[in-house]
Amino acid sequence: MIEYIDALFSFDSYLGIALVLASASYGVTVFFGRHLNSETKENLTLWLWGEYESTWTHHFCNLFDTVFGERHLSWGCFFRSSIASIISVVLLYFLFSSILGVLGGRAVGDLDLIRAIAIGAAINILPDYVSLYETRWILKRFERVRSFSGQAGVLFVDLILSGIIIWLGISVFQYLIGGLSLTAVEVVALFSVYSVFFYSTFLTSVWAWFYCVSTWFMRLFSKGSLSRFLDVENNPVSSVALVISIVIFLVVAGLSPLLNSDKKNDISNLDDMLCEVFASDICAHVARISSDEADALIYLLRACEAGRVEYCPAKAAASIENLKENSLIWPLEGRIISNFGASKDGDINTGIDIAVDEGTPVQSVQDGVVIYADNNLVDYGFTILIRHEGGFVSVYAHNNRLLASRGDTVKAGDVIAESGMTGNAKLPMLHFELRSNAVPKNPLDFLKSHSGKPGASDNSKLEPQNKSVIPSFTGSKTKSKRNQEIQSTIQNNPVGRLRSIVAMPLFGPERKLIESSAEMPIYPASLVKLATLKVLFEAMEAGTFSLDTEFVVSENAQRQVPSKIGLRSDTRVRVEDLIQMITTKNGNDAAVVIAEGVSGSVEKFVIDMNTMARQLGLESTHFSNPTGLPGRDQYSTTADIARLVRSIRKRHPAMSKYFSIAKFTWGKATFHNHNLLLNSVEGVDGMLTGYTRRSGFNMAVTVARENGDYVIVVTGAKTGKQRNMLAADSIKQIYSE
Description:
By secondary structure, the protein is an alpha+beta fold.
């Protein structure tokens, strides 16, 4: 119970933040209240009793006129409004950059304080002056609008008008400078530096809001028994402080369901909701800030399906309409029992239903990436969704067993599941759909027909292409026996359940000082980038490249999913900077730039990676990309990773310093090293971390003390905290023996 309470009210939780803010507001109010003279306290008591309600609007408008001047159309009012505008821009700049970290993590673009003031002067001064006039007009309306609902309605109108005014200002500014188009929802959701200037204008509305809140506050005390309960007559300041703190706590705590997240990808529930509603505008931004590569793929798919073709696969402009007839193989053989568009349980069938024997292998109809593999869809049961080139998605439902996982890259004909009757299926069957931009398409228009023509009638027998040989997802015919065994082992050991640890000396003969499943196959995730850097280091050692060599960023590199730096195509980046982008941020885009720069293409670089692995004797390792993102035939062992680390430290000692960098700054962004053991555990001086849903939390870490240098590799941990703890405990165990 104590641990639960500590977690609930820790500063890391929104309830904890609400409690801190409420307590702080109470303390500050009481502190200043103690310095009020008796006459002011008496007036406060009378105000709380409602003695000033009839004249409150008049007094408040006079206060507004004192601050900004009685005549709005005057240079004096314009000057005061401009000063307030710049001050509000500066305040919001520090709020978004230093306190909330929006400009460094969410917003697209760089913005320093000087540029913020300059752009604010160009964008905000005139709209804020107009908005201030609108606020003056709103305050006058309150003289006739006395009810709570009426005042709430006026405040809503105030928000709409202020939003329109500043959006027009931003749009005009963008048009004049020839900037990129920007949607309102991107600005509202804090995915743009223009959010600073957008929300700055709403500070002019604070006057209207403050009037209404103060009026409601007054009525709360004067119309009910609250004044007697809190003893307002004797303790007016503490009464006000208590109510203010309660309101602050309730507001912040009420927002916590939107700001919190039930995922491990740094995405709030509000971000997820906005992605659902405004997919074309928001999903790509959510993918960019997601710390989970697999989730990032899902968000990019949503953006793609919503019409943002730049986030679709390589041939983004293509669509399912451009597919040639008979271009897809059948997912299995069976009998069609319900066609596309037919009535099905009171609804319209959005795919086709194929009756089969339970346990029939289900194969992918075309090359693609698995974007969903779970049983959360109640009616569909165990379901797989695969994204294909051109932005279309194939759906396979009612399976008994799934043989592929989210993030897997599959080929046409790969077995991805075994059919069954899960969900609402009443007999063993496969429900198959094709969707483009979330719109269902008739699968029979695109599937190969055994008769040579598209389409098939009810009760027709469907035979998959190459029926005699149905390729298994766990391996192709050309794989060695060892590779087949490895893939089989991985399939039978779900990630997170196979926790593996190994510790070896960094130098000298190989010895396993600590070992747990060290030779069992695992998904290495971003630890693959150790191999990426190893190939680069060897090319530099051969004199082909140097730290000052510049590689060009390709469109392919720019399109990489997080974790990434945000490199732009056609720019040039020094090799030394690319190395630091990987050792601190684990940038996928940086890894692709290295691959293309060293070998000319990712495909050729992967060959170089596997050649290097064979030369080092990493017999249980195979690479399929330089990033560590989920890919077909990408696996290793903790022991092989440790051997790779030993080789890097022995052959390339001058490069060791880059793995101990605490942070790296690129442009206006600063990236902190993901290895939290640096500077927290004695002697730790490298190396790298990794995470995907399939791999769990991985880490390779090197440590150097007087009595020896060692490498520890941990994979398959359930959380980053557990990973760090396992590595730290292993270090402690090594040096205590």
